[in-house]
Amino acid sequence: MQNKNLSSLSELANGLSSILIANRGEIASRVTRTCKKMGIRSIAVFSEADRNAPFVQEADVAVFIGESSPAASYLDQDKIIEVAKKTGADAIHPGYGFLSENVEFAKRCEAENIVFIGPNPEAIDAMGSKSKAKTLMQEHDVPVVPGYQGDDQSIKTLSKAAEKIGFPVLLKATAGGGGKGMRIVNKKKDLSSAIEAAKREAINAFGDDELIIEKYIASGRHIEFQIFGDKHGNAIHILERECTIQRRYQKIIEESPSPVLDDALRQKMGQAAVKAAKALKYDNAGTVEFIFDDKTKDFYFLEVNTRLQVEHPVTEEITGLDLVQMQIESAQGLPLAIQQEDIQGNGYAIECRLYAEDAFNDFLPVTGTVQRFEIPEVEGLRVETAVQSGSTISVFYDPMIAKLIVWDKSRQAAHRKMQYVLNHLVCLGTTTNQDFLSLVLNNEGFQQGNYDTHFIDKHIDLDGISAVAPENINFACIAATLTDWSLRNNLRHLLRSIPSGWRSNFYDFQKETYLHKEEETVVQYRYNNALNKQHGFMFEIAEQAYNIRLIKTNKELIRLEIDGIQHTFNIVKSGQDYFMQNAQTGSLHIEQKERFPAKATEVIKGGYEAPMPSQIVKILVKPGQKVKSGEGLIVLSSMKMENTIEASEDGIVEEIYTEAGANVEAGFLLLKII
Ligand code: ADP
Ligand code: ADP
Ligand code: MG
After folding, report:
1. Buried b (16+ CB within 10 A) or exposed e, 595-626
2. In Å, how far are 24, 43, 326, 396 from 58, measured between CA atoms?
3. Per-residue pLDDT tens for 396-442?
4. How many CB atoms lie within 10 A of CB 287?
5. Distance from first CA to last CA of the chain, Å, rounded?
6. CA-CA to 514 of 20 to 30 Å: which in 82, 208, 498, 592?
7. CB-side exposure of 492: number of CA atoms within 13 Å?
């Protein structure tokens, strides 16, 4: 923790006394927490979808600002400034995403005499374009990935540049971010079509088709440095974060220290990061991202994120610093309270991003309700979350449910602890990536720190079924069956003395079928006896027999003795779906197969359905139009992800059943091609 001396305290007293938080979810909660700690009034703004969210209730003041779509609320600069003025906010904290890296907004705050809690607008502007950023860094002697970033954007010049760089190359949208608008090109013959496609994508996503080209570092690690500056020309780095575990260029797990940096390398990279900060006259929290070549140990500047980073808690856990407090202090003009020499890492921290998404179905985000959210009590565990039991995950925002951060003395101990947390966290009611995160934590390569950015594609078996021990699935099926049995049994008011399932023939088996990721498990069971008022059962699953005693059950959990060993299962049942968590099995989702399945919904020939609940961004075709296989038809947006539905064969658009701006459910018929 920082040592606050008297002078900084008195400056603080004259400084900021209320902060509007122009964001939502966990980061809004995070900022509010530091405001409270510092005695600063916190003002939340919220959209329709967030009216009941925890972050709204936590703030001292909460003001409704509009409809759920970000453009109508969290991105509406006029409204946010208006609320700031009305509520007497001295400052605005933009969190990450939304307006956090918006130069125009930062300038407007300044013009309205509201402190923008972030770096100066010039620094944001300089880093807003990947090409300007690289040029500036080159000028200041920060190593950048060899490549081309120039005004001449003709296909001819770009192609020549790519050949000179040497394949594979990476095409990036100059205005890109969030892992979007990148394309690897391996061979010369794919180049011109890739450039055209990348330009098209870039103009659609960012309104600007300028590209840069980089040498593609095939075996690269993403290692970034936290930087910090003040308004007095001081700049430091606060160590690194290893963020190599990604998919689609998006981080999933972050840790610090990096398992591959020694002190010499850390110092060298840290110095480069500080050089970058000084080049920008950087005066708040930021992150310098590097790509690190595993083979040569060379590192290259990628970009500066001019905001607080999602994974900032990792740094806080190993340094004891409060980065939000430091942001607030820097913004009000206080000099940095620490020097480079004071920065010392202590122990290891790791963060996992818990998402509402189906890792086993191409990581599609899912909506739904987190019916139960319970955090296990583990020393050194910190959970930053946007939800509580009963919270809904809507289509309007990104699907992050929580960030789980653990600290321990050694990397091994921190990993072990995280594994324990993933097995014990109760987050039930919707599909999450909890079991997927467990798979990564369990992987030996990951544990040894031996990986690159392709780790998940190369080493994690997403066919999944083999990943869950059959016994765990059997246990889940038993727990689901007996949960239902108990419900039925409790309803038997009339024949209380005869347990449910009691048939004329006492030894008749009953049968249930469950699905786990499309794999069927058939369960046979019969009531056995009651001992001390506890019901006993015999189960048979694929030749395996289990002797079960029902110890206790209530709405939320069931405790069973399975062959002499007791287990507790937390269960949420939603229709045919059972979401459960158990210390041995971790989190598991199984589905009961209906005995008399409803007639499968008719597949409409030539019909295109929404793959997930989404908002229609753009319709690219008209009825009567001829389309070719692969041509884009409709652009959907769901949870920060844009998705283009493409024609699967040549044909003519017969009818379109939706319009731009509409919200549709998964499975909604969008259009038909004949
Ligand atoms: P980071 O680089 O901080 O780890 P990501 O790479 O995950 O963040 O995020 C990519 C982009 O999406 C960034 O611009 C980030 O600010 C934004 N973003 C991430 N999560 C959210 C969120 N929950 N709400 C709004 N924007 C977000
Ligand atoms: P964004 O603004 O979308 O975050 P970045 O330039 O930070 O874009 O890159 C995002 C990710 O893409 C990196 O974390 C890394 O995994 C990968 N990447 C970027 N540039 C390269 C490169 N030249 N070679 C290999 N991988 C790269
Ligand atoms: Mg990046």
Report:
1. eeeeeeeeeeebebbbbbbbbbbebbbeeeee
2. 12, 10, 21, 21
3. 999 999 999 999 999 999 999 999 999 999 999 999 999 999 999 99
4. 25
5. 66
6. 498
7. 14
Assess whether the C-beta atom of 372 lies below 6 angstroms from ligand 1: no
Beta pairing partners, 176: none
**pTM for the predicted model, two decimal places:** 0.88
Single-letter amino acid, residue 595: R
Residues, CB-to-ion distance under 5 Å, ligand 3: 289
Domains (range + CATH), the chain = 2-117 (3.40.50.20), 146-215 (3.30.1490.20), 221-462 (3.30.470.20), 470-592 (3.30.700.30), 607-673 (2.40.50.100)
3-state secondary structure of 670: strand
Is the CB–ligand 2 distance for residue 317 below 6 Å? no
How many angstroms is it from 364 CA to the middle of ligand 1? 17
Checking if the pLDDT of 479 tops 70, the result is: yes
pLDDT band of 492, cuts 50, 70, 90: low
Tell whether the model's pLDDT for residue 605 goes beyond 90.
no
**In the structure, what pLDDT confidence band is assigned to residue 391 with cuts at 50, 70 and 90?**
very high
Q: Which residues pair with 615 in a beta bridge?
A: 637, 663
What per-residue confidence (pLDDT) applies to 602? 56
| 156 contact partners, CB below 8 Å, separation of at least 6 | none
Does 304 sit in the ligand 1 pocket, CB within 6 Å? no
Q: Read off the tokens for 149.
A: 């970033």
Q: Which range is least confidently modeled, 376-380, 565-569, 633-637?
A: 633-637
| Residue nearest (by alpha carbon) to ligand 1 atom 19 | 97
Q: Pick the closest to residue 337 from 671, 672, 6 (CA basis).
A: 6
Could you count the other beta carbons within 10 Å of the beta carbon of residue 297? 12
Region 250-268: what's the mean pLDDT?
A: 97
